[in-house]
Specification:
The complex is a heterotrimer of chains A (233), B (274) and C (269). By secondary structure, chain B is an alpha/beta fold. Helices cover 43% and strands 23% of the residues of chain B. Classes of the chains: A mainly alpha (233), B alpha/beta (274), C alpha/beta (269).
């Protein structure tokens, strides 16, 4: 079966199968959007946790770390309840749209980005703190400098978020509904083919999803970056 | 430094752009909460484009178990409900969530199992004998356990045979709590018998050494119904398009088209809208 | 920056962590120009005292006054510090310089090039700062500190682990800065370096100022037992380590006297 799955995967790609390209495109669109939003929210939270002193900071850090293990299905369920027509945000009409999937994945990934970036930024902040104080940098200047100097580590954090997002099925299948041509992504398609007993096709889609992840990772952390990273990390 | 801020803002703007692309008017969209068998067998791929083309209405199908489909419709997250659990459907209408229930089509359930048939159920002639054979042989039985139409049917059958499966759930009765396909996959992995609708079985692609061992029993009748969600209860319902879709499904012409749908040269659904 | 704001006074400055005094009731008034060296055994509280002076650590009690005033943001902007372990941004040599110049709203290419030339780093302008050698990194840290055009320059054992060449470059620049009117306050374990650069010496022992005197006096006639032991290369075991043991009320008060630089000797070197 494995050989036939690989053959199938290549066949689908070489044929330029329209349905396949559509769900791959949607997978990328949903995941990249969710990661971008999560970076804005998560890096802000991570930087704030790393650089500011406030009451309950340790507790907040533990909470954010714990939220990393939030089950996707629970996130999906919560977003479903919020976006359902009978829910508080039902009037937005967002349930069963890619937007709903982006929202669910953003909620899922933001704690991951926040927790990992907090660690990265805090390590750097400990090193820079006295120098920053000496230079009289404002909080905003400090955070900007930290984010920039930690950029290569933070890229890895972003890729971890993208990985979780691309591979996640529990949340998107609930809030997206796996509707053909609208909210079907790679993972929900894999789940569907598995449930149809078409394990070969499911495996082929899995191989393609892995290939997609590989491609995105390769682009984002290209050779040029890797070389620079050694110099600046 | 400032570039970093700009990059962040650019991402944020991109995110908002993508968000806004999700918002869409749904005048020409129809949301159907459906059982899985009609979707997974390919019926919708065959049928719905015909409706979409002639009516300029986009039909979006969410295929889940009947139980979950009804729950979603109760939350007003559907315009049309297409499932196969008559009692639950009538309850849905009685509770005011649906306008009227129509018979759409039927097929039947079958019991599938490994070819060597350890409980010898293929040799039985009545449903009660068949089920007793499974119990006596302590052969494994995989149940959907997900409140779906098939699960409701299966519970009714055990009840009919006066067999208490709950007390056997640790021994030979295995509740998978998942969809039809996943349950068949599990049954095959366990070497267990399971109940499935015929459409799901015929279109299932990982049968291995599994075959239909018990069928053609009037008790295994499987009726599909279609209901328009009540716009009085759910103001978001696209009642006009929904009614148009239901009328189309029940029309003599479409009923004929349903009868012509085959998988592996086998007819899967028998229209009975009259 | 008016000249008088280079004049540092510490009034009864203490710093405690968890009830343990690491710097204890320090009273000190430094001259407003020239170079002052802070010396003392490891753990005596030298680095902490320097940070308290710079205002990047706040005292638990007492006041730090510059030109008779509590330190303001303006005062701090006119001060710069070079740390024992250079803290460089993960960027190029150029970007490390520009970061400070830009922050001080002084995007001055000429100044940058001039400072880098002084520390002999101009050829490495575009190299990643953290790939420089230890000596080069510290020279860059000094050049970056000077980009702040400081009225007061702090150095915390800036040459502690450097080769003689880098040490010489740094000493030459520090001496020139002091000559040009910058107040230099530096920590060192190198008595010869202190003698070369400093007019006066603050000697710390166990969180207190044991001695503050003119450099010549300090090296020829140290008055405190701790300084005598330090200079003769002996471990001083008699001292009361306030960081680790309790302070007896009788100990407090010994340092109540304000140490003042012997004015008549200033400017001799």
């Amino acid at each position: 079966m494995q050989e036939s799955a690989i053959g199938l995967a290549f066949g689908l790609i070489l044929r330029g199968d329209a349905n396949l390209l559509e769900i791959m495109g949607l997978s990328l669109r949903v995941s990249l959007s969710a990661v971008c939003l999560s970076l804005v929210l998560g890096l802000s939270a991570g930087a704030a946790l790393a650089t500011t002193e406030f009451r309950g900071r340790a507790l907040a850090t533990i909470a954010v770390n714990a939220l990393m293990s939030m089950p996707p299905v629970v996130v999906g369920l919560l977003v479903y309840l919020a976006l359902s027509r009978s829910g508080p945000l039902g009037w937005l009409g967002l349930l069963y749209t890619p937007t709903a999937m982006i929202i669910a994945q953003t909620i899922l990934i933001t704690p991951l980005i926040a927790a990992l970036s907090r660690q990265v930024i805090e390590d750097l902040y400990i090193e820079y703190k006295d120098q920053f104080l000496s230079l009289q940098l404002s909080t905003a200047q400090q955070i900007k400098a930290l984010l920039w100097d930690a950029r290569y580590s933070l890229l890895t954090v972003a890729l971890a978020g993208l990985g979780r997002s691309l591979s996640e099925v529990g949340a998107v299948i609930i809030v997206g509904g796996n509707i053909e041509h609208l909210t079907r992504v790679m993972t929900t398609a894999i789940a569907l083919e598995t449930s149809k007993g078409d394990l070969g096709l499911a495996l082929a889609l899995g191989i393609l999803l892995l290939g997609l992840a590989l491609l995105v990772n390769a682009i984002l952390s290209g050779l040029n970056l890797t070389a620079k990273r050694q110099a600046y990390a | 430094m400032y570039r970093n801020l700009k990059v962040n803002s650019a991402w944020f703007a991109l995110g908002l752009l993508l968000l806004s692309s999700g918002l869409q008017a749904d005048k020409n969209h129809l949301l159907v909460q459906s059982t899985t068998s009609t979707a997974n067998s390919g019926l919708y791929d065959y049928l719905i484009p015909l409706f979409e083309d002639s009516n300029n209405i986009k039909v979006n199908v969410v295929a889940v178990g009947t139980g979950q489909a009804i729950r979603n419709a109760r939350n007003c997250d559907a315009d049309v409900l297409l499932v196969h659990a008559k009692l639950a459907e009538e309850q849905f209408v009685d509770d005011g969530f649906g306008l009227e229930r129509f018979n759409l089509m039927y097929n039947d359930f079958v019991v599938v199992g490994p070819k060597n048939d350890p409980a010898k159920i293929s040799e039985t002639n009545t449903l009660i004998d068949m089920m007793k054979n499974i119990v006596d042989a302590k052969a494994l039985f995989a149940s959907r356990g997900d409140n779906s139409g098939t699960h409701k049917k299966e519970i009714a059958l055990w009840k009919h045979a006066q067999i208490d499966v709950q007390s056997n759930s640790r021994q030979w009765y295995r509740s998978t709590g998942s969809g039809m396909g996943a349950t068949i996959n599990t049954a095959i992995g366990l070497g267990a018998y399971t109940l499935t609708d015929r459409a799901s079985w015929i279109s299932f692609k990982n049968k291995q050494d599994y075959i239909v061992l018990y069928e053609d029993d009037p008790l295994l009748f499987n009726q599909y119904g279609v209901i328009l969600v009540n716009p009085a209860k759910c103001p978001s319902v696209n009642a006009k398009a929904g009614q148009q879709f239901i009328d189309w499904l029940l029309s003599a012409e479409t009923q004929q088209i349903i009868a012509q749908f085959t998988v592996n040269n086998t007819q899967l659904f028998y229209p009975n809208a009259q | 920056m008016p000249e008088h704001s280079q004049q540092l006074t510490l009034n009864d400055v203490s710093f405690e962590v968890g009830g343990k005094p690491l710097v204890h009731r320090v009273n000190l008034s430094l001259s407003s120009n020239g170079a002052t060296a802070i010396m003392g055994f490891n753990g005596a509280g030298k680095s902490l005292l320097l940070k308290l002076m710079h205002g990047i650590v706040q005292p638990s009690a007492g006041t730090v006054l510059w030109g008779g005033q509590t330190s303001t943001a303006e005062h701090k902007l006119a001060q710069a510090m070079v740390f024992q372990k250079p803290v460089l941004l993960r960027r190029s040599v150029k970007a490390n310089m520009d970061f400070v110049l830009k922050q001080r709203r002084r995007p001055d290419t000429t100044l940058r090039q001039h400072l880098l030339e002084q520390v002999d780093l101009l050829p490495k302008l575009r190299q990643p700062a953290r790939l420089l050698s230890g000596g080069e990194q510290q020279r860059l840290a000094l050049a970056r500190a000077l980009a702040c055009k400081p009225a007061v320059l702090f150095l915390d054992e800036a040459t502690a682990s450097l080769d003689p060449a880098s040490t010489a470059i740094i000493e030459r620049i520090v001496a020139k800065e002091a000559q040009n009117g910058t107040k230099v306050i530096f920590i060192t374990h190198d008595a010869a370096q202190a003698a070369r650069l400093a007019q006066d010496i603050v000697f710390m022992d166990a969180g207190k100022v044991a001695e503050y005197s003119n450099a010549n006096t300090f090296f020829t006639q140290p008055t405190s037992a701790a300084a005598q032991a330090y200079l003769s290369g002996q471990l001083y075991v008699e001292h009361n380590d306030v960081g680790r043991s309790e302070i007896k009320p009788s100990d407090i008060g010994q340092n109540q006297i304000t140490h003042s630089a012997p004015m008549d000797t200033l400017g001799e070197n």
